Amino acid sequence: MAFPRTQKPKPKPRSPLIFFFVSLSAIAFLFLFSSLISTNGSSSFPSSNSIQKIFRLKNLTQKQRRNRHFFSVNDKFLYWGNRIDCPGKHCESCEGLGHQESSLRCALEEAMFLQRTFVMPSRMCINPIHNKKGLLHQSNSSSEESWEANSCAMDSLYDMDLISDTVPVILDNSKSWYQVLSTGMKLGARAVGHVEKVSRIELRDSSRYSNLLLINRTASPLSWFMECKDRNNHSAVMLPYKFLPSMAAENLRDAAEKIKGLLGDYDAIHVRRGDKIKTRKDRFGVDRSLHPHLDRDTRPEFMLKRIAKWVPAGRTLFIASNERIPGFFSPLSARYKLAYSSNYSDILDPVVQNNYQLFMIERLIMAGAKTLIRTFKEDDTDLSLTDDPKKNTKAWQIPVYTDEERR
To answer: CA–CA separation, 53 vs 285, rounded Å?
Structure first.
């Protein structure tokens, strides 16, 4: 599979003096690079020492803050493509943040398992359903341009240095990645392996793959995270669900800390309604839903009954929700002091450009609550608003809006 070319960002205008030093550095690099190749005699492949010097030169040009993770001749890399979940059935549709994080976590786990540096896609697609801020939609643009317009920089969501403390990563628009590709082109078949339907154990143990500089993985045609076949075996999960939420970009973490400081001692509740409350008519014209109690259980009058045993009256309750009706949760104010992210626009507006960033901040706030109540149970110890299973059961049932117990 051919690697897609990632266009370098256009350089900003620089002063003549800076331009001179940049040009001088580039000439010096080319001179050094050509001299390294020429020392190899008739071979067209650079030696191990030359590769090491290339990476060493790269490290010297990085800012001190980005200099925590060095690359050497012994480093190897894993590439899964320039889009999360693509190749796969979601290349065009673009799934939500949680779905994409499942895929990204799977890829990071494989890199961790193989002890390789993961080549992180530099952009993440933003599902327009989850982005009320409304990234510009270009109706006359190509699918590639449309995807670019409806995506955001990966490092605007996650802290690459923080992730690299656990799994070393580089972005696919970085100088490091271009140098890996350049080195791979020099080494040819000895450097790059294009693999599909190969287990991670074989990638690790077989010398056919383990000695390659770069493994280019063709992921499952369904979606990336389908590669994690043993996801249900929790002992085999190397990175927990909370890993990526805790890896939020530094400015997002700072915003969350400021809001948490203003909230003080608080509880939190995540109410997922908009994208989960869906009905369809059966052949008799009767509405049915995959989550028959969800609409009822996430209405304020039923929420008050459900959470009373967990959250005492008078407590500050932070609510994160995708409910679009203004004032929908106001009845809860009869018992609690309500707080929303919209109450802190002076902190969030300078930081948040899309709903993915907003939700990542809200997740950090919810994680700091004394008591956290989710919409669905993630595990047996969770407190939840509804007993309906989160996973799609494919069983369309008649919605229940009364206090009657489920049959």
So the answer is: 71
Determine the longest span between alpha carbons in the chain, in angstroms. 83
- How many angstroms separate the CA atoms of 238 and 200, rounded? 13
pTM for the model stands at 0.77
What top-level class would CATH report for the domain 250-384?
alpha beta
What does the alpha-carbon distance between residue 57 and residue 198 come to, in Å, rounded to a whole number?
34
Q: 382 near 392, Cβ under 8 Å? A: no
User: DSSP alpha helices (H): ranges in 239-389?
Assistant: 250-263, 294-297, 300-307, 345-348, 355-367
Domain boundaries, the chain: 16-247, 250-384
Residue 126 has which token pair? Answer: 């933003």
- What residues contact 244, with CB distance under 8 A and at least 6 apart? 101, 104, 105, 158
383 or 187, higher pLDDT: 383
Dist CA 373 CA 384 (whole Å): 5
Per the omega criterion (within 30 degrees of 0), is the bond before 326 cis? no
State which of 69-73, 85-89, 375-379 shows the largest mean pLDDT. 375-379
Provide the 3-class DSSP secondary structure of residue 56.
Answer: helix
Using alpha carbons, select from 195, 171, 192 the residue that is nearest to residue 182. Answer: 192
Nearest partner of 229 among 200, 209, 205, 206, judged by Cα: 200
Contacts of residue 101, defined as CB under 8 A and 6 or more positions apart, other chains included, come to 244, 245
- Given a contact cutoff of 8 angstroms between Cβ atoms, the answer to whether 239 and 105 are in contact is yes
Closest CA to 212 of 238, 180, 240, 235: 180
Residue 350, both tokens: 């300078």
pLDDT digits (tens, 9 = 90+) for 199-212: 889 999 999 999 99
Residue 102 sits at the vertex; the CA angle it makes with 116 and 270, to the nearest 5 degrees, is 140
